[in-house]
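Title: [Solved] Replication initiator protein A C-terminal domain-containing protein 3D structure

Original question kept below for reference.
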Amino acid sequence: MKNIFQIYAEKSISVPKALLFGKYNTLSFEAKMMYSMYQQISQYDNNGLLFLNLQENGHWVKQQIVQELMQYNLVYVVNNCLYFNYIDMDGHIINEIDRLENSKAVASITPAPAPAPAPSTQAPKQQQQESKRTEAINQAYYANEEVPPAIAETLQMFSKNVDESDEYYSIIMKAKKKVADDLGVILWIEDDEALNDCIINSFVRAMRKIQNSSIKNPKGYLYKAIHKSISDLMAERQAPSSLPEGMYNWLEDRD
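Solution (posted by the thread starter after getting help):
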């Protein structure tokens, strides 16, 4: 089992492909990285919009980076909060991304040169190493004690890779934290089976809706769905009993 230092050392930031092409070519490398990092530490408002509170997170934010991102219309500031715009996907950028994806697909189906005499079932060493590396990364993340096993299994079913699972889990934790902050309580997701079931059911329903519908803001929709489910569960727990004190509910004991 990896320790916490190893786990955090292997965490990464995923930069959107669109920022690598077209007019974003001239955007500095640091700005591209910080744009993605700012999103990871942001939260959703009541309208499902992702924002970063500049007052609370000022130690992470560089003014020159924010100004650069604003020049490219990637962010805007309202009431000391940094909001994120959608990346402007023009035809050139889309073509470049398609070319990149197609080159990966062609590479995967292009026959390799005849190898040196060896058993025909032996995979190339590089392919074996990559497979083992992916397996190790998956095992380290999904066996991580910080993520409840049932939730980790659900994330794995709906994610293309570990980075996407980590992004979904971050949304779950932000929704849980918002409910806890609003109620002034602490929610321990690790030891609460009912809360785990609530999150999983809400996540699955939201993902099915996102996959089968044209949701404009999938991450915001997912956040709001999970937030509402946790809020409803907590409201149900905190609701006083409808029975007068001392009355016995004989219906609960019926077989």
